[in-house]
Amino acid sequence: MALVTDILEWLQALPQPALVGATGALVFAECTIGLGFIAPGESGLLVAATTANTAPRFLILWAVVSVCATLGDSLGYAIGRRFGPRLRETKLIQKYGTDAWDKATDVLHRRGAWAVFFARFLPVIRTLTPAAAGTSGLEFRKFLPAAAAGAISWSLLHISLGAAMGEAAKRIEGMLNTGGLIVVGVLVAVGVFFLLRWKKKKAMGKLEQRTTEPSKAE
After folding, report:
1. VTT domain spans which residues (predicted)?
2. Residue 199 and which of 1, 70, 157, 191 are 20 to 30 A apart at CA?
3. What is the per-residue pLDDT across 20-65, written as a single tens digit (0 to 9) for each?
4. Are the C-beta atoms of residues 127 and 45 closer than 8 Å to each other?
């Protein structure tokens, strides 16, 4: 049974507005403080991106996700501006993200808008940085361009990865029987795990490197 192909064809057969809308909603929710611990925005985007097998599908998904991510970040910023440092004392952040909150706040104080851009590529920190930016007093006119640039770059990277994985899965499945497909499925899952882990470490390394450089005047 061509399981992978069947699933991909089922996803591709869904009405595009529904698929894109659901993906945008997940990304928006992930980017809003607190919901990133619940909404699987990054995973949902990778799955949806496997259906981006034509230029129009790719471009529409990219545009919608970029806008939703930017709006979600802007809402997180507004929440941080409204409630200030009290957000750190909320039960959700105390339970899941105190260290990430402190790290995001520290980097924001050091690097300003640059931290907003690079935090987009870091799980957990990505969710907390917009609110931390609002709390830190970073001006919105500096925050918004950095958030938008990060959203555009992040969505392009993940949609490209998802589209490539979808095409590769179809090609591989066409050459294997069911037993071989199980082995490949395991290998692909392991490969994706280590790919995301490597990407996270690389991005974290770049962010930490920037924090050690002398601060420049904004």
Report:
1. 57-163
2. 70
3. 888 888 888 887 765 555 556 777 788 888 888 889 999 999 999 9
4. no
Structure tokens at 95: 């339970």
Single-letter code of the amino acid located at 203: A
- 202: tokens are 């690389």
Hey, what are 7's tokens?
């699933």
**DSSP 3-state percent helix, strand, coil across the chain (nearest 5):** 85, 0, 15
Element (H, E) at 141: helix 140-173
Residue 26: both structure tokens together: 């997940």
**Is residue 47 within 8 Å of residue 11, measured between CB atoms?**
yes
142-147: long-range contacts, CB 8 A cutoff, minimum separation 24: 142/112, 142/113, 142/218, 143/73, 143/77, 143/113, 143/116, 144/70, 144/74, 145/113, 146/113, 146/114, 146/116, 146/117, 147/69, 147/70, 147/73, 147/74, 147/77, 147/116, 147/117, 147/120
